[in-house]
């Protein structure tokens, strides 16, 4: 492992909260598939299963930023314990209702409750990194890069685990394992108080939420479109492999894509970058658009594996400075909320991109579906470019404020 990552994990308490975060957010790549496998097994309908999964996604989209706001104001451990216990109960109710063959409508409030109480744990872990690295902010990009690698590992391993359990053990085993991962990881994280960001109660006279921040207003829709890229490439990849007569190789195709993103994250985090975050973010968006052109031109499955590896190389250099911008531009009292908001935007985008790409596959075929991630990447770049001036202006303002604060602190110390 490159030295920047060894140095990160040598920070007191870092290994513990990284491990807890890995276990706790393993479920993010398992819940949707687990619900589809469970509900389709007991109802015989993939349409119903997809609708129940959508209820989970809607609940998550509503709840994640709100619970993150509570964590900012009251401390992570005070919010995490009751929240994850409620989440476990919600999943247990969903499983019982499904297995008992209760009326289909009962599955929807149970799934919505599970989504509403689901923690955007990746945002909470990134907030911890921001806290423990507050005296060495230059190392934060390495920490966010490391977390991107963790995310890629989760999205490779999670679907495999949930599918094996649901098809080989019991239809409810997959979603049950996902809920167990969440419970274990969140309880372990709640017990780690030394690395927890301090609570920051709402300041008197403070108005508005994180969406009042100009930078967040730019980054959030970009992350939504990036989520659409991710969701679309998953569906397009599976359809393409099946269309070429090798559906069993769909997993290998998507693994090549994830491997490209993970490799880029490791390289990106190991280097020191002088360019401003906003510029790196825009360069990443442009690179992402360019590297999603080749997949629409390729017709061979094995060549596609090579092509999507290179497409994946642009993911992390876009996502990482995007999270960095949120960390830089959002006030500390709203940090977890801001990170959770953009993380949730990705999740919503994945659902939208999967749905849109699926419709294109049905209407135009698998190769045409690769125009969906390309179009979403181009639109994301356009939105980022339109908001570039606002991002840079706010970034400069924050840099000047930080410099003045540092000079003031030195003067007081002397």
UniProtKB/TrEMBL annotation:
Location (main, coarse): membrane
Membrane spanning stretches: 16-40, 46-67, 79-98, 104-125, 146-166, 172-190, 211-233, 248-269, 281-298, 304-326, 338-356, 368-388
Its membrane topology: Multi-pass membrane protein
Domain Major facilitator superfamily (MFS) profile, chain residue ranges per copy: 215-414
Record carries keyword Membrane: yes
Cited InterPro entries: MFS (IPR011701), MFS_dom (IPR020846), MFS_trans_sf (IPR036259)
Highest taxon listed in the record's lineage: Bacteria
Cellular localisation: Cell membrane
Keywords: Membrane, Transmembrane, Transmembrane helix
Protein name: MFS transporter
Lineage, top ranks: Bacteria, Bacillati, Actinomycetota, Actinomycetes, Streptosporangiales
């Amino acid at each position: 492992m490159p030295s920047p990552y060894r140095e990160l994990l040598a920070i007191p308490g870092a290994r513990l909260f990284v491990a807890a975060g890995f276990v706790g957010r393993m479920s993010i790549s398992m819940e949707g598939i687990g619900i589809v496998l469970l509900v389709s097994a007991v109802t015989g309908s993939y349409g119903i299963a997809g609708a129940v999964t959508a209820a989970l996604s809607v609940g998550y989209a509503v709840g994640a930023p709100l619970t993150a706001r509570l964590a900012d104001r009251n401390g992570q451990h005070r919010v995490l314990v009751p929240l994850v216990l409620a989440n476990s109960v919600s999943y247990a109710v969903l499983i019982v209702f499904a297995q008992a063959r209760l009326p289909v409508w009962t599955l929807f409030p149970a799934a919505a409750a599970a989504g509403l109480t689901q923690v955007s744990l990746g945002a909470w872990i990134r907030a911890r990194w921001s806290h423990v690295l507050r005296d060495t902010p230059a190392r934060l990009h390495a920490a966010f890069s490391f977390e991107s690698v963790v995310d890629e590992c989760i999205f490779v391993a999670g679907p495999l685990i949930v599918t094996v359990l649901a098809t080989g053990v019991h239809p409810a085993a997959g979603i049950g394992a996902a809920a167990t991962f969440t419970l274990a990881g969140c309880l372990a994280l709640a017990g780690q108080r030394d690395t927890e960001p301090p609570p920051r109660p709402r300041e008197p006279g403070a108005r508005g939420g994180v969406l009042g921040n100009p930078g967040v207003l730019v980054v959030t829709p970009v992350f939504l479109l990036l989520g659409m890229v991710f969701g679309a490439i998953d569906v397009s990849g599976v359809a393409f492999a099946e269309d070429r007569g090798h559906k069993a190789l769909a997993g290998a195709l998507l693994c090549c894509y994830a491997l490209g993103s993970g490799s880029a994250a490791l390289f990106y985090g190991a280097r020191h970058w002088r360019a401003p975050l906003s510029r790196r973010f825009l360069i990443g968006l442009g690179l992402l658009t360019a590297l999603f052109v080749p997949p629409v031109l390729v017709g061979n499955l094995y060549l596609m594996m090579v092509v999507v590896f290179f497409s994946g190389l642009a993911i992390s250099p876009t996502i990482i400075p995007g999270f960095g911008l949120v960390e830089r531009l959002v006030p500390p009292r709203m940090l977890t909320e801001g990170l959770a908001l953009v993380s949730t935007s990705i999740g919503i985008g994945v659902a939208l991109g999967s749905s849109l790409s699926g419709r294109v596959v049905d209407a135009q075929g698998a190769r045409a579906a690769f125009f969906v991630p390309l179009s979403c990447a181009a639109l994301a770049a356009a939105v980022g470019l339109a908001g570039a001036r606002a991002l840079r202006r706010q970034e400069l303002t924050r840099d000047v404020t930080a410099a003045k604060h540092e000079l003031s602190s030195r003067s007081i110390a002397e």
